[in-house]
Specification:
By secondary structure, this protein is α/β, with parallel strands linked by helices. The chain has one domain: Carbamate kinase. The protein contains 8 helices and 8 strands; from the N terminus they run βααβααβαβαββαβαβ. Strand 3, helix 5 (110-124) and strand 4 form a beta-alpha-beta unit. The protein is globular and about 50 Å long.
């Protein structure tokens, strides 16, 4: 039976230091997802990067407020982002489908069922869903906290086996990651409280941070889905997590039967 994996890649894992999209890193991610599919995994990709993409496409002559910026840059950037994914996955003869969603679609009811049915039929027909928030219409109270929250909701909706949160660090540490005295926490049993180790800083390119990843991982673990936090900038990270989990740096939120 195929394993179902939700992979969330954050803006920090997809962008270079100058804020531009790292197409080489993006191509490497596609290579790894193609490998997973060849090894009996169904994959749903939750990808950030649209706003970062759009911000580099257009110089605006007048000042925009935060909502206007998000709407404009995400509209521009999402088109570029999905086009790049389309071209990269086409090299592997993998069809991709875009799913733009909003928080209200995860409330019990018809919208939830419609989105779930759409993604199920995509997977049944070998189409890779690429999910992002519909930033052009989602504003303030309608927004997800970030794509960590979105990916957790997708993992639960689609009854995934594993959620992989790719960031730009290896996982949760007992202190600051750059401190040589800090230790990587490799496994987290259900009910374990790690809040004393969680830094509150947000990511530089996106809305999230380790606090958001920890909150998502805890909720999704409680729902019966294992969660991995790992470094999306490590070469072949997804393949290594699959083939060599014991030697690949990451934090695993275990479920009771794993």
């Amino acid at each position: 039976m195929k394993k179902r994996i939700v992979v969330k890649v954050g803006s920090n894992a997809l962008t270079r230091t100058d804020g531009r999209l790292d197409v080489t890193r993006m191509s490497a991610l596609v290579d790894q997802i193609a490998w997973l599919r060849q090894h009996d995994c169904e994959v749903i990709l939750v990808s950030s990067g649209a706003v970062a993409c759009g911000r580099r496409e257009l110089k605006v002559e007048h000042e925009l407020d935060s909502v206007e910026q998000r709407q404009l840059y995400s509209a521009l950037g999402q088109a570029k982002l999905i086009g790049l994914y389309y071209d990269l996955f086409r090299e592997y003869h993998i069809h991709v489908g875009q799913v733009l969603t909003m928080k209200e679609n995860f409330q019990p009811g018809e919208q939830f069922r419609n989105q779930q049915a759409c993604m199920r039929v995509m997977l049944e027909n070998g189409v890779l869903p690429i999910v992002n928030e519909n930033d052009t219409v989602s504003v303030t109270e309608l927004m997800f906290t970030d794509n960590d929250e979105l990916s957790g909701l997708i993992a639960q909706m689609m009854e995934a086996d594993t959620l992989v949160l790719l960031s730009n660090i290896d996982g949760i540490y007992t202190g600051r990651p750059e401190d040589p005295q800090s230790q990587l926490i490799k496994e987290v049993a259900p009910g374990t409280n790690l809040s004393q180790y969680i830094q509150s800083e947000k990511s530089s390119a996106g809305r999230g941070g380790m606090q958001s990843k920890y909150a998502t991982a805890t909720r999704v673990q409680q729902a019966g889905v294992s969660v991995i936090i790992a470094n999306g900038k490590r070469d072949n990270i997804l393949i290594d997590l699959f083939q060599h989990p014991e030697t690949t740096p990451h934090t695993l939120f275990k479920i009771c039967n794993s």
